[in-house]
Design the sequence.
């Protein structure tokens, strides 16, 4: 019993520990080598530049949700599988608070921060996250990917830019859009907001 409890505790602590750029990079490199893919082949399959994938594998960059989805799809995996989540068989997945796998894009002190919800669910069309948008944009980058996206503001205020339109959202507000449209978000009022993000892939 003590051994089982220790194993459960270890898994919980590992799930709560944010995945570093090195963790994610080594995982993607392992998946690429396992499938005998070259950087050129993965670049073509994911629609990403070879130099960017190389930076990710070396821990110099962390993929956004959209790029993580592209990489996962190239390997025939979910984002949760790509990032090394443990998987249990069955149709039910429980995600306890404090045990969600987190990862952050290192865009300075106020980069995007994500926590995966139901990352261990093996077969799913939805990819849900809790996102904490940055306080300020670090550059002019926008994000886009196939499918649809739902944002529901849990706390704080958020500004979302979709296809050139800026939309301010308060707690309880929601935004649903086609995610092929260029988009990005930031927190307002000098305080990091929390947003439930659900990304739905193509049917």
Sequence:
């Amino acid at each position: 019993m003590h051994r089982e409890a220790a194993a459960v505790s270890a898994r919980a602590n590992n799930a709560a520990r944010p995945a570093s750029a090195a963790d994610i990079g080594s995982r993607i490199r392992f998946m690429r080598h396992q499938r005998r893919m070259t950087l050129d082949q993965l670049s073509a399959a994911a629609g990403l530049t070879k130099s960017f994938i190389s930076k990710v594998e070396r821990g110099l960059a962390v993929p956004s949700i959209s790029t993580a989805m592209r990489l996962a799809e190239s390997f025939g995996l979910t984002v949760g599988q790509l990032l090394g989540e443990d998987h249990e068989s069955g149709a039910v997945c429980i995600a306890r608070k404090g045990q969600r796998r987190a990862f952050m894009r290192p865009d300075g002190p106020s980069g995007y921060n994500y926590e995966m919800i139901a990352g261990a669910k093996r077969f799913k069309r939805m990819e849900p996250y809790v996102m904490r948008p940055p306080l300020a944009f670090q550059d002019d980058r926008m994000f886009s990917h196939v499918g649809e996206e739902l944002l529901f503001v849990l706390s704080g205020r958020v500004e979302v830019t979709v296809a050139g339109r800026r939309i301010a959202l308060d707690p309880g507000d929601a935004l649903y859009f086609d995610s092929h449209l260029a988009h990005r978000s930031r927190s307002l009022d000098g305080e990091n907001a929390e947003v439930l993000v659900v990304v739905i892939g193509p049917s």
About this structure: The chain has six helices and nine strands.
